[in-house]
Amino acid sequence: MQLKSLSLASMLLVASTSASASFIKMLNDDEQSTYHLSKYCVNELYELKTESQDAWIGQSEYVEYHNGFYGFNYRVYHAPNYFETEELAVIRLNAIPVPPPVPADAPSHNFTCSIDRR
To answer: Strands across the sheet with 84-97, in order?
Structure first.
């Protein structure tokens, strides 16, 4: 019974994270995850750093959707007090497939970046 309730709780956690995501993976490769952030979301990160000077990227997630879309979630944290850390916002980078025909020298996805303040 305890295992069953634990499985149900973990399923609810994943469902609440993203209702339409088919795959979510925590990224441990800082180089890969920060590449996309630095290329597409510089303005959003700058906005959060302006709001809170001590803001930092605490966790990166790769999200894959059923319809060929994928994206990254960058959880931004800050410390409003010396011993307190809280989530400031989530920077969401979404990659939307370009409909065919895609020229050979064009990217296969369009990237959009947004800030989700909870």
So the answer is: 21-27, 56-65, 70-81, 84-97, 109-116
